[in-house]
């Protein structure tokens, strides 16, 4: 029997629709903006290795947990954490997740605004209007950042008010394949340029001396961010899922899709950095550290587009930033959906009203960030690198000690017959119990220890 599943919450219209929406949530600026600069900052393939481990040993088991909790309870995170007779304390966990989503969206929205403003940067560059191109391309211009944050938030609210299947799902179905196509095309192009192979080596040659606990901490935070875990996005998306969906399989597809797009983005952006370097742009400081990794993508890529044949450059530049904006949009909607569904569920407010109220509240924080970009690093450390793994830790505790893995397996059996005797059915309970929370615990302990030492 369904647990208090209210009728008007909406549902995904198809299995593919759900996978695309979840992949759309996962794939975003985390893959194309954050991942490449973290790899470049942290020793290339050494980071990739730890990152992949974090995705499979910590991320994937928690993704399955979130989806199962969401489908079973049919609620947003706050309500879900108060199900199964959980101690009241877990309500705070739900609220913490909602707060993390709120704060992450506030800076994400500013970066998403950049992707949109770069569509215009490209147009005016190729139209020969350098002044306007520079204006749209100026990441430090507070007024411009504010304008684009406002535009982006309205786009996000617009889709959220459209509801689950109509809004989120339709938008994603078109955007994701197009994004993959332009990525592949740009990778092919970048390797025709001088310096690209140097970038490739930098990307895939591991520097194992860089593997430290700090690297683990960053890779873990990045895995949670990129897979959209730890704050209840996938609990919420799971609550719109029907009983026929095979959750372990869907989660696997989403993890693989997310990893693949990140890997491809690295294959484009790190070589593009080195191409920029060989055309005179400084990307590393004297100590060999990246200069301002938050703005990296926005410096390296236009350099590439501008070096193309003008028509091709215009076409690729506009298309790329447009698609990147859309990838960001399928992520911002998943971030906004969590607090919105919380307000709908708990305060019985109409979807539209909830979306505007929460959207404007987040926007007000965004505007502060638009003028103070250094808040991005601060917020992402607190709410992403610390907040999300902490949330993930609590999710596994909730699953193991409150709901219990046996009950979760019964839920997961819907859509995956005979899960008990399957390889997954043996491995996953072990992972959520012993591997994921323990790894998160060790990384946290070490990080705190190194801070107070
Ligand atoms: N995963 C998205 C990205 O990589 C960002 C995102 C969307 C997110 N929803 C989330 C991050 C929930 C953390 C939690 O761009």
How would you explain this protein's 3D organization?
There is one protein chain. The model is unreliable at 1-8 (pLDDT under 50). The chain is an all-alpha fold and 453 residues long. The chain starts with 14 loop residues before the first helix and ends with a helix. The chain has helices at residues 15-26, 29-41, 45-73, 77-81, 89-126, 130-137, 142-161, 164-190, 196-204, 213-226, 233-239, 247-278, 296-306, 310-347, 351-371, 374-403, 405-412, 423-452. The chain is built from 18 helices and no strands. Helix content is 78%, strand content 0%. The chain has a single domain, classed as Hydantoin permease (Orthogonal Bundle). Helix 2 runs antiparallel to helix 10 (213-226) and helix 5 (89-126) packs across helix 7. Bound molecules: tryptophan. Residues 25-26, 28-31, 101, 104, 225-226, 228, 231, 233, 331, 334-335, 388 line the site of tryptophan. Tryptophan (TRP) binds at residues 25-26, 28-31, 101, 104, 225-226, 228, 231, 233, 331, 334-335, 388.
């Amino acid at each position: 029997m369904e647990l208090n599943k209210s009728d008007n919450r909406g549902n995904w219209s198809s299995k593919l629709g759900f996978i695309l929406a979840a992949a759309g949530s996962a794939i975003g600026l985390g893959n194309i903006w954050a991942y490449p600069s973290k790899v470049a900052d942290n020793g290339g393939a050494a980071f990739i290795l730890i990152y992949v481990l974090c995705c499979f040993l910590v991320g994937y088991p928690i993704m399955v947990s979130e989806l199962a909790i969401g489908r079973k309870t049919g609620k947003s995170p706050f309500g879900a954490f108060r199900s199964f007779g959980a101690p009241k304390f877990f309500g705070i966990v739900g609220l913490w997740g909602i707060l993390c989503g709120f704060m992450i969206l506030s800076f994400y929205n500013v970066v998403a605004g950049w992707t949109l403003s770069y569509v215009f940067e490209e147009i005016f560059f190729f139209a020969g209007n350098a002044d306007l191109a520079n204006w749209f391309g100026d990441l430090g211009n507070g007024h411009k950042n504010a304008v684009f944050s406002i535009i982006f938030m309205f786009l996000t609210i617009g889709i959220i008010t459209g509801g689950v299947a109509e809004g989120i799902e339709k938008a994603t179905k078109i955007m994701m394949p197009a994004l993959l196509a332009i990525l592949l095309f740009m990778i092919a192009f970048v390797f025709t340029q001088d310096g690209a192979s140097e970038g490739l080596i930098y990307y895939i040659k591991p520097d194992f001396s860089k593997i430290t606990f700090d690297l683990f901490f960053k890779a873990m935070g990045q895995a949670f961010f990129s897979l959209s875990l730890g704050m209840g996005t996938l609990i919420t998306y799971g609550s719109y899922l029907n009983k026929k969906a095979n959750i372990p399989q869907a989660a696997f597809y989403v993890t693989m899709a997310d990893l693949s797009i990140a890997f491809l983005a690295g294959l484009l952006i790190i070589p593009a950095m080195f191409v920029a370097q060989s055309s005179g742009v400084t990307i590393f400081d004297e100590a060999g550290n990246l200069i301002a990794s938050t703005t990296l993508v926005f410096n390296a890529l236009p350099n590439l587009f501008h070096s193309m044949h003008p028509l091709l450059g215009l076409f690729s530049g506009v298309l790329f930033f447009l698609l990147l904006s859309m990838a960001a949009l399928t992520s911002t909607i998943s971030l906004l959906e969590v607090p919105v569904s919380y307000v709908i569920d708990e305060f019985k407010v109409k979807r539209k009203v909830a979306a505007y109220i929460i959207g404007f509240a987040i926007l007000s924080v965004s505007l502060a960030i638009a003028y103070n970009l250094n808040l991005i690093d601060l917020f992402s450390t607190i709410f992403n690198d610390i907040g999300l793994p902490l949330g993930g830790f609590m999710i596994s505790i909730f699953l193991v000690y409150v709901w219990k893995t046996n009950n979760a397996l019964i839920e997961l059996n819907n859509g995956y017959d005979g899960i008990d005797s399957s390889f997954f059915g043996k491995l996953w309970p072990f992972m959520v119990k012993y591997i994921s929370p323990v790894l998160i615990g060790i990384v946290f302990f070490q990080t705190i220890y190194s801070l107070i030492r």
